[in-house]
Amino acid sequence: MQSEFVLNCAPYTFAVTCQKAELADRLVAMYDERLVPAHQFEGYIDYRVAMQEGNGLRHFIKPQSRFVFEGNEPFLPFKPSQGYALFEWGLNWVVSSQEFNYLIVHSAVLAKGDKAILFPASSGSGKSTLAAYLMHQGWRLLSDEMALIKPFTREIVPFVKPLCLKNESITLSRQWYPDNAFSDIAYNTHKGNVIHIKPTQLSVEQQRESAKVVGVIFPRYTASEQFDVYSIDKVGCFKGLTDNAFNYGVLGKGGVHALINIAENSQCFELHYDNLQDVAQFLEEVINDNSP
User: Fold this and answer.
1) Which of 116, 144, 177, 272 could form a disulfide with 211 if both were Cys (CB 3.0 to 4.6 A apart)?
2) Left if phi > 0, otherwise alpha if psi is -120 to 50, otherwise beta: which for 66?
3) Angle between helices 127-135 and 168-176 (to 10 degrees)
4) How far apart are CA 103 and CA 87, in angstroms?
5) Domain ranges within the chain, ordered by starting residue
6) Per-residue pLDDT at 124
7) Percent of all residues in the chain with a pLDDT value above 70, rounded to a whole number
8) Distance in angstroms (rounded) separating the CA atoms of residues 99 and 87
9) CA dist., res. 13 & res. 202, Å (int)
C-alpha cells in the first residue's frame, strides 16, 4: 500500500511517496514528528521524491528498490534490503545537485551552542563514527555528510539527518548506543555494509539554529596509533576546504569568500587517533578557546 508523507528536514521540505510498507515504517521510526502524513501538511514543498518497487514481472522475479526524483531515477535500482540506505543517499544527492543558495562542503558538522566544528574527510577516515560519538556526548549534530554554509560567512545551516555508519563501526555503535534507533543493515553496498543511526533529540530540536565555524578538523583514525595533533596553517586549511567543496565555483565570490572567512577565523588541525575520548577532550579545548 502506497504511503505519502512530508518530511520537514530543515532547511528543506520533501514530499515522499513510499510503496513499501516496511520502508515507510522505518522512515517514521527514524524521523518521528518531522515526518507527517501528506494530507496533514499545508505549506511549500521544496523537492518531491519517491521510493518505488520494480515494475511488471520484475516486481516478483527480481524485486528492486528505486529512488525517483521529480520523475527521474538518478541511480540504478538497489536491492530491497538496501532501500533505506538508498533513500538517505538519494536525499543527499538531491540537495548536493540542486542547491545553489548555500556553499556545500563534504563534511560532518557538530556544535556546542552556536560554535561549530567542521570535519571534512574522505570515506574511511572515521568521520561518521566520531560524529556519532560526539553527538552522544552532548554535541548537537548539524550534518553527517554536508555542511551548508551561507555565502560570504562562516555560518552553518543545519541539515539534520540520520548518520551513516559503515562496516566495523556498526557493531561498536550498537554496543555503545543500545537505546538509540537504527535502520536495518544494508549489506554489500558500494560503501560496504552500512547502517543509519537516528539523530539525538537535542540535534532535532535545534535543527533551525545555525552555528558559526570556529574549528576545522581533518580526522584520521588508525588502530593502535597514539593521539597526535598537527596544526594546519590558513593556506592549508583553505586548500583542504576547497578539496571537499561541491559548488564554490558556481557560487562565485560568495563561495570563495566563505571558505576564506572560515580558514582565516578558525583553528585548523589534522588529528591522528585511536581513542575517541582523546579527540573529544581536544575539541572541548578548541571550543573553549573561542569562548567570549
Assistant:
1) 116
2) beta
3) 10
4) 23
5) 3-98, 103-161+199-289
6) 66
7) 96
8) 18
9) 20
> CA-to-CA distance for 253 and 258, rounded, in angstroms?
8
Alpha-carbon torsion (112, 271, 165, 174), positive or negative: negative
Measure the CA–CA gap between 136 and 126, rounded to whole angstroms: 16
> Which three cell numbers, joined as nine digits, stand for 117?
566544528
Is 18:51 a contact under the CB 8 Å cutoff? yes
Q: 103-161+199-289 architecture in CATH?
A: Alpha-Beta Complex (3.90)
CB neighbours of 94 closer than 8 A, spacing ≥ 6?
A: 14, 47, 49, 69
Higher pLDDT, 61 or 62: 62
Amino acid, res. 15: A
Mean per-residue pLDDT of the chain: 92
Q: Who contacts 122 (Cβ-Cβ below 8 Å, separation ≥6)?
A: none
- The set of cell numbers assigned to 109 is 558538522
Name residues whose C-beta falls within 8 Å of residue 167's C-beta, 6 or more positions apart in sequence.
Answer: 192, 193, 194
pLDDT mean over 18-24:
92
Strand partners, 36: 6
> Hey, what's the cell of 274?
585511536
* C-alpha closest to that of 160 among 109, 217, 214: 109
Predicted confidence at residue 2, as pLDDT, reads 86
